[in-house]
Amino acid sequence: MIKKYKVRIDHQEYEVEIEEVAEIEASQEAKPQPSRSLRPSQPLKPASPAKRPKDPEASGSEVISAPMPGTVLSLQVKMGDQVEAGKVLLVLEAMKMENEIVAPQAGKVVEIHTSQGLAVNTGDLLISLA
Questions:
Q1: What is 57-129's CATH number?
Q2: Is-contact 120 114, C-beta < 8 A?
Q3: 4, 91, 111, 127: most buried, per Cβ within 10 A?
Q4: Any bridge partners for residue 14, and if so which?
Q5: Bias category Low complexity: which stretches (predicted)?
């Protein structure tokens, strides 16, 4: 029986067909084979630490963080914009749903910590208001 599935890898969607096959009989069982060890030709360099944004809370800013993991679909504000409480700041896609992230209070957009298309995790800084 052939089943069709859609698979998404790195924002690219692929359609695949998978065929169900009968169980392998005992006489046809695959025998484990030793595998070659794959080692890099040059030693790997440790990654440099990620650059952390300035601590917005220390400067008295209101911090808007990602409430869930997702992808930033669109930014609705830019640096320097004055916003009212409840204004949509950005749209975050999570589990195929578009979620509007709104300003919790009136203020001025002093820093944008994300960009359109960027994947974010729960708690990641999105926008700072003053």
A1: 2.40.50.100
A2: yes
A3: 127
A4: 7
A5: 24-45
